[in-house]
Structure formats: structure tokens, C-alpha cells
Amino acid sequence: MDERLISQARLGDEEAFASLTESLVDRFHAVARNILRDPALADDAVQAALVRVWRDLPRLREPQRFEAWAYRLLVNACYTEARRARRWAPSVRGRQGPEPMTADGTSLVADRDELERGFRRLPVDQRAVVVLHHYLGLTLEETAAVLEIPEGTVRSRLYRAMESLRAALAADARTPVPFAMPNEVKR
User: Fold this and answer.
1) Is the confidence at residue 129, as pLDDT, over 70?
2) In terms of residue numbers, what domain contains 160?
3) What is the Cα Rg of the chain in Å?
């Protein structure tokens, strides 16, 4: 990040702030969509994070850590949006049968959908760790710094997330047993 732009933005220069955030907006949207799994919620989280960045930028003590600080604000905004969505939106999921395996590439789509269903089942704090570590490529130490949590907590959330994904994929792979109705009793 350009420390000159950060300094100017800290002093209230709107053009410097626009230039500074222009490079972040696409990555912010990608991270928020990956954490929240909903484009509308992701847009709201990005907007809230950018407003918070602008409002709190003058109080940023270490301008060289601007990017990590901004991602922390984004992840916090994602947590807020996830809580708000959970409070207002019902979660209705239908069980679909196993996808047929074909050689025309549809199995790749089925695999991606299966992963998506498993990822949606993760709590938002585990999704955040997975996205920061695997999608953004942050080290465990950098992920811990962004989330302001101990590195051990990052490791355990990442471990639990991977175990939950494995369990979800295994559960989806099992073929459901059809329910047999008992014979009706004649009177």
C-alpha cells in the first residue's frame, strides 16, 4: 500500500481515500462473498467496512498495517451481516438425491455445489479463517493478526472447519435409505 496515500487519506483527503480503496474494493467483495456466501450480504458488508475505514482512518496508529487493519474491519462487518441475516432469514434446505456422474463435466459442477453446501454449514468465524488463509493466502500468523485472535485459535478454527467440511461431504455422499410405510392395519 502507498503510505503517502494513507497519510493523505488520514488527513481527510477524499481523492486519496478513493485511490486507496480502489485497489481494495474488488478483493473486499471477493472475500466478503466467500465468507457470507450471499452477494447482497457481501455488498452490505463491504459498504459498512469502507464507511468504517473512512471514519476510523484518522485513528489508525500504524499506517504500514493499513491492509490488515482494513481486512479486520471487513471481517467484523461480515460477522455483523451474518448475525443480521441469521436473525431475519429462515434457513430452508431441501435434500437432493445424489448427482449422476457423467463424463461431460457436470460432475465438476456437482462437486462445486457439494463443496458450497458444506461451506455454507460452517459457522462464519470458521469461514473467515478459511477464506483469509486459503483464498487470500495469508499465513496463520497474518490471519491471526487480521482477526486479532491467537494463532492457536486460528489453527483450531481451521482444523474444525476442515473436519466439518469432510463430515458434510461424507454425509452428502451417503445415499439416503427410502422410508417404508408400515402396512396398514385392517379393522
Assistant:
1) yes
2) 105-175
3) 21
